[in-house]
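Bug #77: duplicate submission created two jobs. Keeping one. Sequence:
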Amino acid sequence: MDQQQRIPVKVDMHNPKAPDHYPSRDRIYVRAVKGLHQRLRRNMGFVFMAMFFLLPWLQFEGHQAVLFDLDEQKFNIFGMTLWPQDFTIMAWIFVIGAYALFFVTTFYGRVWCGYMCPQTVWTFIFIWFEEKIQGSRNNRMKLDKDPWSGQKVLKKGLTHFAWLAFSLLTSLIFVGYFTPIDQLFIDFFTAQASFWSVVFVLIFMFCTYGNAGWMREIMCTHICPYARFQSAMFDKDTFTVTYDAARGENRGPRSRKDTEYKAKGLGDCIDCNLCVHVCPTGIDIRNGLQYECINCGACIDACDDTMDKMGYAKGLISYTTEHSLNGRPTKVVRPKLLGYFVVLLVVCAAFGWTLWTRLPAELDVVRDRGSLFRETDEGLIENTYTLKIINKSQQEQTFKLSFTGMEKVNWLGISEVTIKGGDTASVPISLSADPADMTKPMTDIEFSIENAADAEVRLSQRSNFFSAR
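Kept job's structure:
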């Protein structure tokens, strides 16, 4: 077999003289870069981060607009309350999110990771704290190599204090989605918060601190499953951050005044390595498409700036497709992309239909589990039920109670109930009938509730009436 065709064999790991194939992780010092894609990334990150921080503070008709109350097992989202029975709505939301992610990835690669993923947004925020306290990339590298001193302790201490403070704020906001946020802040900073509230705040605080401060690109390259299965959605017409090797190679430094570099066999890449310095995952995009790339476009802005200074055309690194690089037309509209789009439309329509047909109340009839029936002192047959009524809206509702299926039956209990928004009422009801009027041991009946203000809101639930016969 020819030497160039041989597959290199890994060195025996049992050999004590074998080199270390798993070296310790080298820290990535991300260099600041400006440009179109970074402005877009920062603006999008700011919008979604502002939504995250402000949404739990919004009030709607006197209550927290968005509150996922796990104790009460209900999710309040503005004027709508979701209960465990509404799990299909939450399922549709996750399915929509999944297919939207598939569609965007097939079209434009991992732009979700590079522009909107919380891990990326928070990592860049933590890097911003580093830059403001410790300085530029070169200054941070020098600071880490310098021996410990008072100045180094101060800068490192301020950096980690800023990280922890921002992580605490993030954690409080996150927990505030699951418990009243205004009371959470008051109780936490006055040391009156419950044990579990404090535990969850601290857990999420240290998770944020660890993920964005220490692990960073490890979350994207080793832990997040999305980096692994993204290739199943890529094709030769997917727009990804790509280096134009035909134009850039061979690499080599040169002066700005050198106009004869192509005669020397050089391409447009001056091998400045800025594309590597600005990459948050530390890869070299010139080595081709890599699963670590999150499509953030930082290398594009850095390269475009260099090309502009050298007087070359921009776009040596750009969002492009494999077909485009090979001189073939890019097929934007293609079967796989259309398939994801059609499925996305279908699940969005199903989600909309589920919301449109969802009634703002729910009825459940529970029979007395102690006995099927009992005989009263008057000789009547009595069955006992509990009507469990859920008001799924955020407004107070009054419901009229009734039943059908039998005649000459005494109704014992209230016939109208008022329930607060997002609350539940259990109404005990007894039905009694003369045994002489009963023709069979079990009779099918149906309980109904009707909104007193809107007759179109009417719910029914079947049950049975048992007798001695």
